[in-house]
Write a structure and sequence with these properties.
Helix content: 10-25%
Number of domains: 1
Number of helices: 3
Order of helices and strands: EEEEEHEEEEHEEH
Strand order of the largest sheet: 8-1-2-11-10-9
CATH architecture: Beta Barrel
Oligomer: single chain
Strand content: over 45%
Radius of gyration: 15 Å
CATH superfamily: CheA-289, Domain 4
CATH topology: OB fold (Dihydrolipoamide Acetyltransferase, E2P)
CATH class: Mainly Beta
Shape: globular
C-alpha cells in the first residue's frame, strides 16, 4: 500500500488502499433488511446495482454520531464485489510509502483493532489501515443474527 483513501469514523482516521475504492457518494436512501445483523444498515441502489451498506460505527462498537451531519458512503470493491461503508466524513488520499508502518497500538479499542492491518504514524495522529476483508467477513456473519 502506498496510497490510502482516508475517512473518519468517530475519533479515528482510517485508510484503505485507493485501488479498493470505487467511489464516494453522499448518503443514499437505505432500505432496511429484516433480521440482518446490526452492522448491516441495509441496501442502496447505486445506478441499478444493489449494494450492502455496512455501518462502520456499529461495526466497531462506537456510539451513534452526534449532530446533524449526514454520513457518507465509501463504495469499495473486495473480490470484485462492491460494498458501501457508512463513514462520518471523507478525508483525502495520502501517500504513505515513506511513513512508518507499525502494529496497531494497544490504545486502540479491541473491536476496532481486530479490523486493522496496522497503523501509520503521521506527524499529528495515527492513520489506521483498515482490513476491508475483515470488515466484510464479520459484517456478513450470519451466525451472529438472532
Amino acid at each position: 500500500m502506498s496510497q490510502l483513501s482516508t475517512f473518519h469514523v468517530g475519533k479515528y482516521l482510517f485508510g484503505v488502499d485507493v485501488f479498493l475504492v470505487q467511489e464516494v457518494v453522499r448518503l443514499q436512501m437505505i432500505t432496511p433488511v429484516p433480521l440482518a445483523v446490526p452492522e448491516i444498515s441495509g441496501l442502496i441502489n447505486l445506478r441499478g446495482e444493489v449494494l450492502t451498506v455496512i455501518d462502520l460505527r456499529t461495526r466497531m462498537g462506537l456510539p451513534p454520531a452526534e449532530g446533524t451531519r449526514e454520513p457518507v458512503n465509501v463504495v469499495i470493491r473486495v473480490d470484485e464485489e462492491p460494498v458501501s461503508l457508512l463513514v462520518d466524513e471523507i478525508g483525502g488520499v495520502l501517500e504513505v510509502s515513506q511513513v512508518p508502518f507499525e502494529q496497531t497500538p494497544s490504545t486502540v479499542d479491541e473491536k476496532v483493532r481486530d479490523l486493522l492491518l496496522g497503523a501509520y504514524t503521521l506527524p499529528d495522529r495515527l492513520l489506521l489501515a483498515l482490513n476491508a476483508k475483515a470488515v466484510l467477513e464479520v459484517g456478513m456473519d450470519s451466525s451472529r443474527a438472532a
